[in-house]
C-alpha cells in the first residue's frame, strides 16, 4: 500500500479521527491537505504531516459554505496538485449547548444536517469534476454506527449519520461509471472530544448513566454494547480509510463498513 | 508485511477465489495451507507459493466432515507450529450435475448447505478452542453477494450464502470476548470454475442467454449488474481477506464486506 505522489484532502483533519487519518495517509506517502475550521489545530497537524510525508497544507474551510469548498479545491490544486483521495470526515453532534439538553432543538437538527450531510455533499460536488476528468478517484465518508439503527437520546445526530450512509450509496452509483469509488466507515465508540460531549448528554438525559462523568458513561457503554469489550481508536478508523483508498479496494464501492468491535453486525 | 511469521489455512484454496486468497496471503508473507480435495490443483498452488518465497503445504480436506477439519488444524500445527488465520472459502453451486437441472434437487440443497454452511461451521469449530486458548485468531468466511438478498433462479446457493453471513455473526459474537475476529467477504462477479458452471446451468436450462458462451453470459451479467462496469477478480477478494485478517482490522468483527463493484450496497 503506497500513496506516494497522491494528493489527499481530509475535512475535519485537524483533530481526533481526522488527524489520525491525515497522518496515516501521510505515512503511506500522500501529500495531505488539512481542511478544517480550526486554523490553529490544522496548522499543527499539517506540521506533523510534513514531518512524515514532506507535503501538507492547510485551508480554513467551513464545509457548509459552498464557496469555501470551491476555494479548498483551488488551494489544494495550487499547493499540492489535483486530488486523488477525498476523506469527508468533518462532523458535529449538535448546536451549542446540545450536550446539556434532554431534547434536540430545531437548531440541533439544522446545524447537524448542515455540517454532516450538506457539508459532505458540498465538498464532494466541489472535488468531483477533477476526479471525473481523471477517470479516477477515491472518496471515503465518515458516518457512525449511530446511523445504522435508531437509538434514544441523539435523534438529530443518528439521522444525520443515516443520511451520510444513504448519500454514500447514491453518489457511489453516480460516480461508479467514472471509476470513482465512494465508501463509508461507521466508527463505533472512540474516546474523542465529540464522545466527551455525547457522554455528557447521556449522563444528563438517560437514567442509566445519571451522575456519571463522560468517561464513565463511555466505559459503561463499551461493557454493555461492544462484544470485543474494547474501545475503538482513531488508528482503527485510519487503517480502514487507508484500505478503502488503496488499489486493494478498487472494486469496492457503495459500502458502509462498521469498525465497532461488533456493536452492529451487518 | 502483515503476515510475516503467520500461518493461514485456505479451504478450497486450490482453485478460483481460494487460490487468489492463498496467493495474496502468501505475497504478504504468510505460510499457507491449501486445504482442498483436488490434490493436483492444490499442489500447483503450493508450488506457485513456494516459488514466490513463502511456505505452503497441501492438506487433503473435506470440509463437510468435522474429523477432516480437525485433522486439517492438527496437520497445520504440526507443519508450521501455529494457526493464525482460517479462511473458510470452500463452496459449491450444487450437487454433481446441478448445471443441467432447472429446479434444484434435494441433493443440490443438501450439497450446498453441507459445503457452504457446515463447511464454515466445521472449520470454525475445529480451530476455535485453539484460538481462544492462544488469545489470537482471525477467521474470514467467504459468502457471496447472492447471500445479500433473495432472487429467483439460484435459491439453493443464495440461501446457503445468506446462512454463511449469519453463522459468521454468531461466531463473531461468541469469539469477540477472546479477541478473535470473524468477518465475511461477499464477492460479486468473478470468473471462476464455479461461475462457469453457473453460466452453463443458465445455458442448459434455457434461460434467456441461449447461443452465448459461458464467458459471454458472464460478461453480459457484468455489464448489466456492476456499477463500476467491470468484473471483480480473485485478487480483489484476496486483498479484502488480507485486510480483514490483518491486525489493521482488529476492531472489525461480525461484518460482511461486499467486494462487488457496487452491485449491492450495505
Our estimate of the beta-strand percent of chain B is: 5-15%
- CATH class placement of chain B: Alpha Beta
Reported by name, the CATH topology of chain B is Rossmann fold
Largest sheet of chain A: 7 strands, parallel
How many strands, what sense, and barrel or not for the largest sheet of chain B?
7 strands, parallel
Beta-strand fraction estimate of chain A? 5-15%
CATH topology of chain A: Rossmann fold
Please name the fourth-level CATH homologous superfamily of chain B.
Answer: NAD(P)-binding Rossmann-like Domain
Structural features, described:
- Chain A has 8 helices and 7 strands, in the order E-H-E-H-E-H-E-H-E-H-E-H-H-H-E.
- Chain A has 266 residues and is an alpha/beta fold.
- Chain A has a 7-stranded parallel sheet with strand order 3-2-1-4-5-6-7, with helices on both faces.
- In chain A, helix 1 (16-27) runs parallel beside helix 2.
- Chain B has 266 residues and is α/β, with parallel strands linked by helices.
- Chain B is built from 8 helices and 7 strands.
- In chain B, strand 2 (31-36), helix 2 and strand 3 (56-60) form a beta-alpha-beta unit.
- In chain B, helix 3 (66-80) runs parallel beside helix 4 (106-134) and helix 4 (106-134) packs parallel to helix 5.
- Chain B is 47% helix and 14% strand.
- Chain B has a single domain, classed as NAD(P)-binding Rossmann-like Domain (Rossmann fold), CATH 3.40.50.720.
- Classes of the chains: A alpha/beta (266), B alpha/beta (266).
- At the A-B interface, helix 5, helix 8 and strand 7 of A face helix 5, helix 8 and strand 7 of B.
Amino acid at each position: 500500500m503506497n500513496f506516494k505522489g497522491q494528493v489527499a484532502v481530509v475535512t475535519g483533519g485537524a483533530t481526533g479521527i481526522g488527524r489520525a487519518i491525515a497522518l496515516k495517509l501521510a505515512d503511506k506517502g500522500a501529500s495531505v491537505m488539512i481542511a478544517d475550521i480550526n486554523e490553529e489545530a490544522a496548522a499543527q497537524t499539517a506540521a506533523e504531516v510534513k514531518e512524515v510525508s514532506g507535503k501538507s497544507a492547510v485551508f480554513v474551510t467551513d464545509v457548509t459554505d459552498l464557496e469555501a469548498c470551491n476555494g479548498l479545491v483551488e488551494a489544494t490544486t495550487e499547493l499540492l496538485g489535483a486530488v486523488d483521495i477525498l476523506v469527508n470526515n468533518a462532523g458535529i453532534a449538535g448546536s451549542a449547548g446540545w450536550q446539556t439538553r434532554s431534547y434536540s432543538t430545531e437548531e440541533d437538527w439544522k446545524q447537524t444536517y448542515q455540517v454532516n450531510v450538506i457539508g459532505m455533499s458540498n465538498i464532494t460536488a466541489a472535488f468531483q469534476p477533477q476526479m471525473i476528468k481523471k477517470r479516477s478517484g477515491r472518496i471515503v465518508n465518515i458516518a457512525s454506527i449511530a446511523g445504522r439503527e435508531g437509538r434514544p437520546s441523539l435523534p438529530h445526530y443518528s439521522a444525520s449519520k443515516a443520511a451520510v450512509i444513504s448519500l454514500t450509496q447514491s453518489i457511489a452509483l453516480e460516480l461508479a461509471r467514472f471509476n470513482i469509488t465512494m465508501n463509508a466507515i461507521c466508527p463505533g465508540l472512540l474516546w474523542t472530544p465529540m464522545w466527551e460531549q455525547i457522554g455528557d448528554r447521556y449522563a444528563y438525559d438517560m437514567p442509566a448513566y445519571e451522575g456519571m462523568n463522560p468517561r464513565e458513561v463511555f466505559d459503561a457503554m463499551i461493557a454493555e454494547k461492544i462484544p470485543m469489550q474494547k474501545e475503538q481508536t482513531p488508528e482503527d478508523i485510519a487503517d480502514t480509510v487507508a484500505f478503502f483508498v488503496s488499489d486493494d479496494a478498487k472494486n469496492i464501492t457503495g459500502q458502509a463498513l462498521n469498525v465497532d468491535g461488533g456493536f452492529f453486525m451487518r | 508485511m502483515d503476515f510475516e511469521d503467520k500461518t493461514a489455512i485456505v479451504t478450497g484454496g486450490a482453485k478460483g477465489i481460494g487460490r487468489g486468497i492463498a496467493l495474496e496471503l502468501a505475497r504478504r508473507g504468510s505460510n499457507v495451507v491449501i486445504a482442498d480435495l483436488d490434490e493436483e490443483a492444490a499442489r500447483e498452488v503450493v508450488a506457485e507459493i513456494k516459488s514466490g518465497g513463502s511456505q505452503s503445504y497441501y492438506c487433503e480436506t473435506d470440509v463437510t466432515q468435522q474429523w477432516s477439519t480437525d485433522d486439517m488444524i492438527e496437520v497445520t500445527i504440526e507443519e508450521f507450529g501455529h494457526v493464525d488465520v482460517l479462511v473458510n472459502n470452500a463452496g459449491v453451486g450444487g450437487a454433481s450435475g446441478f448445471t443441467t437441472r432447472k429446479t434444484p434437487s434435494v441433493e443440490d440443497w443438501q450439497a450446498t448447505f453441507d459445503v457452504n454452511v457446515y463447511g464454515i461451521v466445521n472449520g470454525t469449530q475445529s480451530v476455535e478452542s485453539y484460538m481462544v486458548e492462544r488469545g489470537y485468531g482471525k477467521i474470514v468466511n467467504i459468502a457471496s453477494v447472492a447471500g445479500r438478498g433473495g432472487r429467483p433462479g439460484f435459491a439453493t446457493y443464495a440461501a446457503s450464502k445468506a446462512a454463511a453471513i449469519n453463522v459468521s455473526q454468531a461466531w463473531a459474537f461468541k469469539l469477540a470476548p477472546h479477541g478473535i475476529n470473524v468477518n465475511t467477504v461477499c464477492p460479486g462477479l468473478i470468473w471462476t470454475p464455479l461461475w462457469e458452471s453457473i453460466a452453463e446451468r443458465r445455458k442448459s436450462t434455457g434461460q434467456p442467454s441461449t447461443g452465448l458462451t459461458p464467458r459471454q453470459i458472464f460478461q453480459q451479467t457484468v455489464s448489466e449488474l456492476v456499477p463500476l462496469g467491470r468484473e471483480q477478480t480473485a485478487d480483489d477478494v484476496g486483498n479484502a481477506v488480507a485486510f480483514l485478517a490483518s491486525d489493521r482490522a482488529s476492531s472489525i468483527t461480525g461484518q460482511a464486506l461486499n467486494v462487488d463493484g457496487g452491485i449491492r450496497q450495505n
